[in-house]
Every structure is written in C-alpha cells, then in structure tokens.
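FORM 12-B: Structure-to-Sequence Request
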C-alpha cells in the first residue's frame, strides 16, 4: 500500500529537475566523507580515506587494529626493503606489496582489485580485500558513503531474523499501519518543514486498500495543510479531490499490481545485515535490530515522493522491532540527515520516519466508498 500511496502522490506533486553529479575518478581520490562501520561502531582514522579505481583504501595499521589484528610487530610486519606488508591474525597470514596486485592468502596466490599504495607518506591497503581475507563480511552503501564490516556470526543472526520477517510479512493477507514523517530542509537561512501522517489498511486477498494522508507544511513562514483520501481496488487507484470531493480514477501502470497490496518489509541486503545489530527487546518480547545504517529501500521511497533525489546521507540510524514469536514487524524508526542536489544550489535535509500500530491479519475489513467512479 505504501507503494500505491507514493504512485498517487507523485501524480499530483510538483515536478523538480535535478542533475546527478558525475565524477570521473583518475588516480587517488581523497574521500573525507567515507565512514567505516565495524560491527556497528563508526571507527575514525588519523589519515583521510582514499579511493582508487572505485575501491576504498585505509591507513594500514589503523584499519588492521580496528579489525582485531594485534598492534605489534609480530602481527603487522612492514618490510621497508621490498615494501611489503605481512599480516598474521590467528591462522590467517596475508602478504601484500606496494603497487602490486599480486597477493598471498595463507601462501596461496591471489590477484586483488587494487594494490596497496603509499600516499602522503602513509601506507594504504584495500579495506574490502583485507576484511574478507580475515573472514569478515563487507558491504558498501552508496548514499551514505559507508563501508560496513561485520563478523560472520553476527551477520548471520541479523540475516536470519530479516529473512524470517520477510517471509512472515509476505504471508500476511491484511495489515493496518500508521506512518509519520518529519522532514526539514535548510537552504541558507531558510527552513522548510513537512509533517506527514498516513493511516493505511489493505487486504491482499481481495486486492483492496484505503488510506488517509494528513500533511502540514511550512514554507517561507507560511503554513498550509492538505488532507487526501486514497482507495485502491485491483489495478485501479482513486484519489479524492480535496476541494470538490469527487473521486479521480487512475491505473497503477503496474502489471504485477498484486504485490502493491503486500507489506514492503526490510530486505536482508548486505548493507542491512552488516549494519543492523540484533539485541533483545526490554520486556516486550521483541527482537530489536538497530544501528548506524542507511535502510535505503525504505528511505528511497520517501525521498522519491518528496522529489529530493539525488541525495547523500551524512548521518543515519535505524531501529526495527520484530515480534519474537510471529516475526511480524511492530515498529520501524529511521532518522537520517544529509544533502540533496535536487534543489538548485543544493540544500541540507533531516528526516525522521516512524511506522507504528502495525496490525496484521486482524479482525477488520477494507470498506471502499460507494460513490467511486466505475
């Protein structure tokens, strides 16, 4: 139903023109915006992260220590004569040479995507190769420019919960939900705020849905409100004209419209499984997944609706409450901030999304108005 709501709103929203930034990478590119998330914690580095050929490289000793390698000359060995690095961690032994894509993992030759380099008198090594060679999971999130690294056991725990939740949500025939969004856009001295609340109910078996949308926005000191009612039946969607009260009929344009009546749950992507940490709920019988991670499949729908794409994410946090017995989602909270270039000159944004009061397969029915156009 969320997808249906967005389809309708986009039909009636203002059109904004935006040009994505295109950047040709040649040689070393300094990227101070890159964030490194290791097992849920953002790690910091004294030297700036760099990109070579689309791969992230980090300062040698700092990243190895953050990945759990002991900080001594028996585990991190630098040979100044041949400009090589040997890393020993438990049963794993790695060997790399500066400006050489040939490496050894436990004495087995391997060709890596990008070679270690010396940049501004510091040795940099490719973070993905090093992390994976040490047995860790690695993911990259483009909007937040974040490398996420996770130990495989914790990764698997989060993945298992999300997969079970996706299965449970996909099997639910009916659901009710309440969503709220608070968006602030700042450009220079001007602040624009948008508060949206959506109450929706759907029946996937009958392919019926309805929603009420209440929106308050303050632009250049002027506050206005908009209330919308939406209904859906099979491949048709109806929007009630807030002025005349007449219903306007549209087709979804989606041949597989049945999926529009199912709940869109958080998918077990590499980013989600690497960034969400599983912990027990407090006295609620919940499983809680949370962390400094951008859940982009959920966020992107709203940024599309607000016509704020393309965008980047500077700071992010997500929290998902899942019922321990049924694996149905009970609450989702997302807080992000960053920059959008969809507005001329660019602008900063901050967004809080909350979804609560989720009720699956309850004793309720979707009732459509009797005066919908044929």
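FORM 12-B RESPONSE
SEQUENCE OUT:
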């Amino acid at each position: 139903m969320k997808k249906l709501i967005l389809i309708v709103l986009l039909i009636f929203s203002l059109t904004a023109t935006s040009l994505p930034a295109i950047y040709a990478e040649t040689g070393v590119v300094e990227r101070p915006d890159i964030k490194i998330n290791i097992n849920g914690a953002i790690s910091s580095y004294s030297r700036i992260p760099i990109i070579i050929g689309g791969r992230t490289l980090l300062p040698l000793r700092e990243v190895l220590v953050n990945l759990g390698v002991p900080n001594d000359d028996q585990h991190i060995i630098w040979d100044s004569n041949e400009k090589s690095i040997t890393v020993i961690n438990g049963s794993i032994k790695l060997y790399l040479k500066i400006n050489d894509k040939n490496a050894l993992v436990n004495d087995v030759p391997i060709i890596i995507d990008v070679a270690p380099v010396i940049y501004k008198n510091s040795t940099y090594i490719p973070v993905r190769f090093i992390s994976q060679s040490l047995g860790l999971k690695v993911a990259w999130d483009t909007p937040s420019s974040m490398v996420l690294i996770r130990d495989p056991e914790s990764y698997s725990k989060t993945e298992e919960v999300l997969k079970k939740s996706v299965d449970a949500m996909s099997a639910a025939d009916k659901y009710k939900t309440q969503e709220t969004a608070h968006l602030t856009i700042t450009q220079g001295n001007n602040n624009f705020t948008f508060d949206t609340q959506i109450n929706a109910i759907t029946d996937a078996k009958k392919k019926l849905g309805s929603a009420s949308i209440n929106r308050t926005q303050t632009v250049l000191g002027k506050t206005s409100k908009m209330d919308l009612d939406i209904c859906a039946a099979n491949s048709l969607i109806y929007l009630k004209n807030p002025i005349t009260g007449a219903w306007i009929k549209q087709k979804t344009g989606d041949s597989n419209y049945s999926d529009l009546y199912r709940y869109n749950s958080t998918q077990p992507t590499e980013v989600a499984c690497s960034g969400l940490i599983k912990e027990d709920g407090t006295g609620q019988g919940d499983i809680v997944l949370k962390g400094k991670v951008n859940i982009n499949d959920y966020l992107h729908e709203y940024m599309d609706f607000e016509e704020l794409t393309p965008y980047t994410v500077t700071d992010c946090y997500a929290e998902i409450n899942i019922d321990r017995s049924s694996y149905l989602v009970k609450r989702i909270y997302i807080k992000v901030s960053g920059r959008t270039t969809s507005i001329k000159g660019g602008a900063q944004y901050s967004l809080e999304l909350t979804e609560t009061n989720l009720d699956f397969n309850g004793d309720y029915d979707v009732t459509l108005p009797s005066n919908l156009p044929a």
